[in-house]
Design goal:
Oligomer: single chain
Number of helices: 7
Number of strands: 0
Distance between the termini: 33 Å
Shape: globular
Helix content: over 70%
Radius of gyration: 16 Å
Largest sheet: none
Length: 178
């Protein structure tokens, strides 16, 4: 796998982890397990282990439900302020496992920061959305985020040259939002 593909994977996983860590792990793990994703970099093959898939599936289900309850969502997101950036950093470490230690450290720091930025943007947007009392828009936003994570990762894995500029635009958008 070339460096651009690895960069695309790391960026996609970091942004995906910031939005929904468990969806990012579950989608990537299922893709590897069923052969939709081949030649994944580093140690990302571990995401296809049945125990990891089961854990990610259970936690994704909990997040899916928590995201639909207006008063639970801010609490869930508040707790995940400490979980998602670490998850993004660890996914970057896994993707760069066979690389130079300096590259691994830079990838971890960058991915953790990017995951925190994506998470903070999501959380801020969600808090603004919760100012309206009707729950239908909250559920629609949650489902759109989940589909966005899947679409972003699919693009990052299949078309890195298209995904990298898009993800850089997302990073600029996150910076502007924050």
């Amino acid at each position: 796998m070339d460096n651009w593909s690895i960069l695309s994977n790391v960026l996609g996983l970091a942004i995906g982890a910031g939005l929904n860590l468990y969806a990012a792990v579950l989608v990537t793990g299922l893709g590897i397990r069923y052969g939709w994703l081949e030649n994944m970099p580093g140690d990302l093959g571990l995401l296809a282990h049945p125990a990891v898939l089961l854990t990610a599936g259970v936690l994704y289900t909990l997040e899916f439900v928590a995201d639909k309850v207006p008063f639970v969502t801010p609490i869930w997101d508040g707790l995940h302020t400490f979980i998602r950036p670490v998850g993004g950093a660890l996914l970057a470490l896994g993707a760069t496992a066979q690389m130079d230690p300096v590259v691994k450290l830079i990838a971890m720091l960058g991915a953790g920061t990017l995951a925190l930025g994506a998470h903070s943007s999501k959380m801020g947007f969600r808090l603004m959305a919760h100012s309206t009392p009707e729950p239908a828009s909250h559920s629609a936003i949650s489902v759109a985020e989940d589909f966005g994570v899947v679409a972003l990762l699919a693009l990052a894995y299949a078309y890195p040259w298209v995904a990298i500029p898009l993800m850089l635009a997302i990073v600029v958008g996150i910076a502007a939002f924050l």
